[in-house]
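Backbone shapes recur. Consider a single case.
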Amino acid sequence: MDDLRVWLQKAKNLGQLDQVDGADWDLEIGVITALNWRKPAYHALIFDNIKGYPRGHRVLTSSTSNAALAALTFNLPPNVQGLELLAAVRPKLQEWDASYHKYPVQYVKEGKILENVLSGDSIDLWKFPVPKWHELDGGRYIGTGDAVITRDPDSGDVNLGTYRIMVHEKKMTALYMSPGKHGRIHYEKFHARGEKAPVCISVGHHPLIFRVGNFQLPAGAEYGYIGAVAGEPVKVIKEEVTGLPIPADADIVIAGFSPPGKTRVEGPFGEWTGYYASKDRPAPIVEVERVYYRNDPVLVGSPPGRAPSDSSFFNGVVGSARAFNELVAAGVPDVKGVWMGEAPLQQFLVVSIKQRYAGHAKQAAALASMGRRGAYMGRYTVVVDEDIDPTNLQEVLWAICTRSDPEKDIDLMRRCWSTPLDPTIRKPTNAYFNSRAIIDACKPFEWKDEFPQEIKISPELVERVKKKFQGVL
């Protein structure tokens, strides 16, 4: 597969990569990235000549923040948006889900990541322009667009997960992972045995690597999944101190161990919900024993924040496609569209159906709310008729306001799966639950054919008027 340098050149050739010179790692990179998302049309950003660092020590952000960049990264059809992009992603996910086991990693002895190797007193994580992304962050985060590589001591499965990594000292990082995540299960198993957990952290690589690390996949599937998307096995090197497989053509990889019982305060950190919902707390550390990097290294950042954000577009498309496929696999007929919008992200899930029987809408809503993709910290699931475009929130709100009655058409599900990042949960607590609202915004099934007729303009009339008044419309 391509390395990051090839990806950067392709993005530049597409007009999808903008260079920013002279920014400060202290907040300016984060602010410029956040303002970039709020432009009508935005591209990936490559920061160079960063204050206090030599030219060539760069930071990449917004790498999959629009349809063109997502298409480049995942080999999808170019120039498609909305439901057309969703239609392109759905079969690809099914294809990758079915074939990832056919792409085991390919071990090699040499790779570009070995151009520079630091050990002992030469290790200094501050040699990279690690940003402080948000004003109230508790420190500088080298891991936001990363892939944290761990191994299950029982099964041997290797996991790649995108978790936040704060730099504590030149040879020490935090290791924050939410409860239940594969990487956390791995280090907890090692710690329960009184053993230190081997950890490698790739923080510079092709965007495909950390995007797949952000997927919810079966244990040990990530490297194979990357291979399935790329169409070839991922080349890896056996890292010398941990024994973990690291991408041979990565830009920056950190290797070390997380010892049991050793913690440092991590956070706070501005998260994808748009809040500092989880405060600073003790978290395991990684004691760094090796640092690998290429000449002129590129650190890949994907800072979370209130949507639209670095990840919201891509996560919305993939989440929508997965939720759609889950409904179809569950046997729900005539699903016309599923959408997790950028602004509310996964907390607002819309399903469009052609109603076939009484209870069809409720069935679709309940299954979408509790499917793998919709279950994690969901808030609202709305089901609309097939004439409503689920990607258009204005149409969805119109359907809610004109086709649903709060007393009859809104149901609540309680004690559902949430997360420490949920801002509505008061901390501290030992259990993270939230509730879900299911909104049936379809025409009442019993008399849908008698429902008041909508005001519509026929396509033929639109075309005729546009042709007549070309200078006006």
Remarks:
- DSSP finds 13 helices and 22 strands in the chain.
- The two ends are 47 Å apart (CA to CA).
- Residues 4-300 form a domain with the Pnp Oxidase; Chain A fold (CATH 2.30.110.10).
- The mean pLDDT is 94.
